[in-house]
Write a structure and sequence with these properties.
single chain; alpha+beta; 6-stranded mixed β-sheet; 4-stranded antiparallel β-sheet; about 15% helix; TMEM106_C; TMEM106_N
Length: about 240
């Protein structure tokens, strides 16, 4: 049975008639699941649920796995680079001066007194990708396992990135009968090198800081220290 053209037909809020369509809801939006054949009021837009077919392309991820892998790779690369450049490395201390000549010497054999000063140079190698600052050093010298003298240098020096700094420390020795080292004075007056070159043990302790952290480096060296006045031979 065919409906009469004069009979209105309801279709998603519309009334069909021979003269045309008349909207029931003036303030409405298209129904997302009606394929454009109906409308719903805006008051019901937040309450209704739209059903999407399983074969709808919008449910199929497009390159999601690729994007996730790229994001994970970038995160790992960034973390690896940060760890490589910011990971702290120890400052290496070394010495390549086995023999130390006196920078100043006062020798008086008759008074059993020797006062001389040597400069011990150390190499501080910074292998980090950021500068390191030396806050101070302390050096102790020992002969026959007994402390002869101590010295310190509180000068702050900055070691640039990936570089080596030459750092000198002065140490003054006093050999006399008053400090139980008077028996070494006669060695210092002997021109034979194997006599006046004293085997001294140096223990160095250096404090350095980087990125707000304070660390310590130590080095023990066994060096020959000359207490002979070679200038006297040159004058003679």
């Amino acid at each position: 049975m065919r409906p009469d053209r004069s009979t209105p037909v309801m279709n998603g809020g519309r009334r069909s008639s021979a003269d045309g369509y008349e909207e029931f809801f003036k303030d409405s939006v298209p129904c997302p699941t009606c394929r454009g054949l109906g409308r719903v009021s805006k008051e019901q837009e937040g309450e209704l649920v739209a059903l999407i077919p399983m074969r709808d392309k919008r449910l199929k991820p497009r390159r999601t796995v690729l994007y996730v892998l790229i994001a994970v790779f970038l995160c790992l690369l960034t973390a690896g680079l940060c760890m490589f450049f910011l990971f702290p490395r120890d400052v290496i201390v070394s010495s390549n001066r086995p023999l130390l000549q006196p920078a100043y010497l006062d020798l008086n054999v008759s008074a059993t007194f020797v006062n001389f000063t040597v400069v011990n140079y150390y190499n501080f190698s910074n292998s980090n990708f950021f500068p390191v600052k030396i806050m101070g050093t302390q050096m102790t010298s020992m002969y026959d396992e007994k402390v002869m003298a101590t010295s310190s240098n509180q000068t702050s020096v900055e070691i640039p990135t990936k570089s080596t700094l030459n750092y000198g420390i002065f140490m003054n020795f006093i050999l006399s009968a008053e400090n139980d080292w008077g028996f070494l004075v006669k060695f210092c007056d002997d021109s034979r090198s194997w006599v006046h070159n004293l085997p001294i043990t140096f223990e160095l302790t250096a404090n350095y800081t980087y990125l707000g952290h304070v660390e310590q480096a130590t080095l023990t060296t066994y060096q020959q220290v000359s207490c002979y006045n070679s200038s006297a031979d040159a004058r003679s």
